[in-house]
Structures are given as structure tokens and as C-alpha cells.
Amino acid sequence: MELFMRFKKTTLAALCLAFASAAAYAAAGDRYLSNPTLNKDLIIQVNKAGVTTDAIKVSGTTGAAAILGRADGTEIAAGNVGEVIFGGRTRASRQTITSGAVAKDFASITLTKGVWVIGAAQGFFCSASTIMNYMTTYIATTPNTGGGQNAWATQSSERTEINSFVQTLAVAPGSDATQVIPGYPIVVSAATQTFYVGGAISFSGGTGVEHYGSIYAVRR
């Protein structure tokens, strides 16, 4: 009995000591997972279906990290790096846009708080020979307010608009003029923020212009 009691006391003391050590570690602040051996990689591996794969590998010589990407053809879950949000209007469902400095949206997406790369593309369909005095594609945070010849200088510096602008372009009958806004990094600080994509044009000749396109964002 005395031996049993000593064993119980010793075990309880060890557990208390372990708990105290864990509590002290939890309060210590930063955590480190390191490989202190000179010039040796730090590797985190996973075992999937019996195959061991490097999930994260940090080079011991350069410090560069290789992170395994999603390779099973499924979408990245919301909130994770690589999440994709997409919106658009197809060429078959294109809408009329009038000549003059009048902005018109054709699609939008709503993003949640975080860092994103956002981009867009737009096509202008001309049913007859048309001279584009100018055409612009924008991404803006207010509906139907982007575009115009001075938008790039006056608004994108405040990051309320990202703009692509082209002047004097001849378009053949039944053809399309296209514009692209390459991926551009943005920060969404609100819980949600809607971004609108659209265009504004000034043209002469022809019988009308219609536009369409897409907008996307990828979480970083």
C-alpha cells in the first residue's frame, strides 16, 4: 500500500510539473520549429494514401520556402490562400454601352477582409465599322462611376479605381476590341467590399457598341 501511495504521489507530481511547464510555454510568446543544423532543410511532411510528401520545405541554404499547392482539382476553401472569386458577363449576353464619358458596369464581385490580387478583362463588340476615340476598362468600388480619360491619374492613386485606357482605335464590322487589367494587389479592410467592373467609351461611326467581360480575385 505504501509503495502504491508513493507511486500515486510521484505520478501526480510529474503531471503537475508537466502541466506547469506547458502553461509556462504557452505564455512564453513566439513558437519556433527549427532545424539548427547548418545548411540543412526544414521539412514538414504529410502521409496521404501511404505516400509521404513534402508539404512545406524550407531550404537551409537560401531560406526559400516551397509550399505544396492543391493538386486534386477542387476549389480552395473560403478564407484560405488561393481562394478564387469570379464574376462576369459572356459575349452572348453582352449589353449596350453608349458613347460619351458615361461609365457602365457589367459585373461585380464581393470580397471579404484580406489581401487579394484582382484583375479584369473587357470586350467591346462593334456591329459596324467604328472608330474608338477612346475606350476604358475599370475596376471601382462605386457602381457606374469608373472610366474617363483622367481616371488613372485622379483615382487609382487612391486605390478607389484601377483603370486601363486606350485612344484612337479602328474596329472592323463584327469585330471586338479587348482590354485587360492585369492582376493588381489590393487590401480589403472592411468585412466585405464589392468591386465593379465596366467600361466607358467615346466612338464615331458604326451603329452601336456592346460590351462584356469578367472580373476575378485571388486571395494571397
What does this structure look like?
- The chain has 220 residues and is mainly β.
- It folds into 2 domains: 33-69, no CATH class; 84-219, Jelly Rolls (Sandwich), CATH 2.60.120.
- 13% of the residues lie in helices and 53% in strands.
- The protein contains 2 helices and 10 strands, in the order αβββββββαβββ.
- The chain has helices at 2-26, 151-154, and strands at 42-48, 51-58, 65-67, 84-89, 95-97, 100-126, 130-140, 161-171, 175-204, 209-219.
- Strands 4, 5, 6, 7, 8, 9 and 10 form a 7-stranded antiparallel sheet that branches. The chain has a 3-stranded antiparallel sheet with strand order 1-2-3, with no helix packed on it.
- Taking pLDDT < 50 over at least 5 consecutive residues as the criterion, the unreliable ranges are 1-26, 149-160
Fraction of residues in β-strands: over 45%
Q: Give the overall shape.
A: elongated
Helix-strand string:
HEEEEEEEHEEE
Calculate the mean pLDDT score and round it. 79
Helix/strand class: mainly beta
- CATH architecture group name of the largest domain: Sandwich
CATH topology of the largest domain: Jelly Rolls
Oligomer: single chain
Treating each run of at least 4 consecutive H or I residues as one helix, how many helices? 2
Query: In whole angstroms, how far apart are the ends?
Result: 63 Å
Estimate nothing, just give the exact number of structural domains: 2
